[in-house]
Write the C-alpha cells for this entry.
Amino acid sequence: MATQVTATATTKAQRSSSFLQIAIALQTLTIFLQAVSAGLLLTSSYGETLHSIGARVMYGASMLYVLAAVLAWKRGGGSLRPVWHASGFLVLASVQVVLGIAHVPSVHLPLGVLMFGLSVLALARALRSDTGPARIN
C-alpha cells in the first residue's frame, strides 16, 4: 500500500516537473524570438508588429511559468524556490513591457539579454534536477 502511494506521488511530481520544464523552455524560446523580432524591427516594416505580438506571447509564457512552478510546488511538495524564480521573471517581463512601451531601448535591450540568460540558466537547472536521483519528501 505504501509503495502504491509513493509511486503515485512520484508520478505526480514527475508530471509537474515536466510541465515546469516545458514552461521554462517555452519562455526561453519566446525571449529568444523577441531578440530576433527586435532585429527585424530595425530592418523591416513588419518588425514592429512581430515584436509587439511576441511581447504578448512572452508575457503569457512568463505567466505559464508561474503557474507551472506553483503546480510543481503544490504537487511535489518541494522547494518554493522555483515559484520565486518564476515570479521574478514575471516582474522582469512586466518591467520589460513598460520599458518597451515607453521606448527606453537603453534599458530595454540589456534587460532582454539578462532575461534570456537567466531563462537559459533556469532551464538548465530544471533539466539537471530532473536527471538526478528522485527525491521524495
User: Anything to note?
Assistant: The CA atoms of residues 19 and 124 lie 15 Å apart. The longest helix spans residues 2-43.
